[in-house]
């Protein structure tokens, strides 16, 4: 377990990384709420998904739980597929295609 109370370069780097990722999550939520357009919101949702994967990977590294990497991979796949679905929706909406 890495998080044993002793200060190492890895624990400092993980703490700084978690702080920066938390800031990026907050900024992503602000962009989702404020817009200004649908593609901006879709990109913000993709960024939130990527930041969430980063949080899971950092927690897996800190807690020495490699099983969390499976969850990170699954979340990355779902986030990617969601972004593709949103992009397809936006493209079809702009062309005026109705199914």
Quick structural gist:
82% of the residues lie in helices and 0% in strands.
How many domains would you count in the coordinates? 1
Fill in the CATH topology. Helix Hairpins
What's the SSE pattern?
A: HHH
CATH architecture: Orthogonal Bundle
**Fraction of residues in helix:** over 70%
Sheet bearing the most strands, described? Answer: none
By oligomeric state, this entry counts as single chain
CATH class: Mainly Alpha
| Category from helices, strands and their pairing | mainly alpha
Number of contiguous helices: 3
**Gap between N and C termini:** 53 Å
Residue share in β-strands: under 5%
Unreliable segments (pLDDT under 50, ≥5 consecutive)? none
How would you explain this protein's 3D organization?
The chain is mostly helical. It has helices at 9-34, 38-63, 67-95. It starts with 8 loop residues before the first helix and ends with a helix.
Would you spell out the secondary-structure blueprint of this structure?
Elements lengths: L8 H26 L3 H26 L3 H29 L4
Helix pairs in contact: 1-2, 2-3
Features:
99 residues; mainly alpha; Helix Hairpins
């Amino acid at each position: 377990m890495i998080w044993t109370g002793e200060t190492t370069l890895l624990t400092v780097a993980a703490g700084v990384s978690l702080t920066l990722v938390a800031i990026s999550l907050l900024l992503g939520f602000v962009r989702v709420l404020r817009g200004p357009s649908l593609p901006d919101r879709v990109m913000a949702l993709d960024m939130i998904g990527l930041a969430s994967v980063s949080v899971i990977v950092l927690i897996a590294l800190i807690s020495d739980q490699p099983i969390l990497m499976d969850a990170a991979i699954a979340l990355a796949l779902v986030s990617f597929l969601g972004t593709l679905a949103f992009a397809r929706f936006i493209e079809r909406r702009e062309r005026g295609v109705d199914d």
